[in-house]
């Protein structure tokens, strides 16, 4: 299984000049916790709900004046769509992020994968494995 099998392709994106208010509305309306900031189709940053809380709310900043560029984590950790799940697990472990943009071979945004997506997939696999093992146990 590769990251392309697991990723979501309906990524919420914005440009670097998008206001914090618009980012927050997008997150609320789309039911997501992050917005990938793109320039020329490539992910150049990511803004999370936590970034909004710490960079706008906690600072009592004007959400119409703060932009994605002010709040984003620049140069986000990305993973190639062709990477395997083990590579993805290693990257999540070493980078200590919860959301990772997925890039195509040319570096453009192809999707996003979250730690929650990975966790759900692994739990499903564990469940299937347990059923296979249980089916092979002889009755007592």
UniProtKB/TrEMBL annotation:
Keywords of the record: CBS domain
SMART domains, sorted: CBS
Membrane-spanning intervals of the chain: none
Record's signal peptide: none
Domain CBS: 7-64, 72-129
Annotated region described as Disordered, given as residue ranges: 1-26
Full protein name: CBS domain-containing protein
Organism: Halobaculum litoreum
